[in-house]
Amino acid sequence: IKSPQMLRILLGEKPGPVIASKKPFKAELVCGKRHSWCTCGHREKQPFCDGTHKAKAQGLMPQRFYTANPPYCDSTHKQEFIQSALLKGNTNF
Ligand code: FES
């Protein structure tokens, strides 16, 4: 455990990130524009941040990027620890 915040999340005292989906999202990006990818998973409409993390996962920030260096899917979602984890709302699809 790397921080008191992480300990509070693990103990259930503080809301943390959730898995929004086990599949990648397609998104249209605008060349040269800065985008903010949602790292908390709480936003209903993924994959971009709308500020929901401020209420549901305080301390987390979106991953900001320009189209030259986006967080493209690297197939991490296919790994067992993701596929066996519960999704947001405990629905596993
Ligand atoms: S809404 Fe998820 S990081 Fe902002």
Mean pLDDT: 83
Bound molecules: FE2/S2 (inorganic) cluster
Strand order of the largest sheet: 1-2
In the predicted model, the low-confidence regions spanning at least 5 consecutive residues are none
Oligomer: single chain
Radius of gyration: 14 Å
- Overall structural domain count: 1
**Cα shape:** globular
List the total number of helices: 3
Strand content: 5-15%
Helix content: 10-25%
Gap between N and C termini:
29 Å
The total strand number stands at: 2
Structural class: alpha+beta
Encode the helix/strand succession as letters: HEHEH
3D architecture notes:
- The chain is 16% helix and 9% strand.
- It has 93 residues and is α+β, with helices and mostly antiparallel strands.
- Strands 1-2 form a two-stranded antiparallel sheet.
- The N and C termini lie far apart (29 Å).
- The protein binds FE2/S2 (inorganic) cluster.
- The site of FE2/S2 (inorganic) cluster has 12 residues, from loops.
What is the element layout, followed by pairings?
Layout (H helix, E strand, L loop, with lengths): L3 H7 L23 E4 L15 H4 L6 E4 L13 H4 L10
Antiparallel strand pairs: 1-2
FE2/S2 (inorganic) cluster (FES) binds next to loops.
Quick structural overview:
The chain has 3 helices and 2 strands, in the order H-E-H-E-H. It has 93 residues and is α+β, with helices and mostly antiparallel strands. The protein is globular and about 40 Å long.
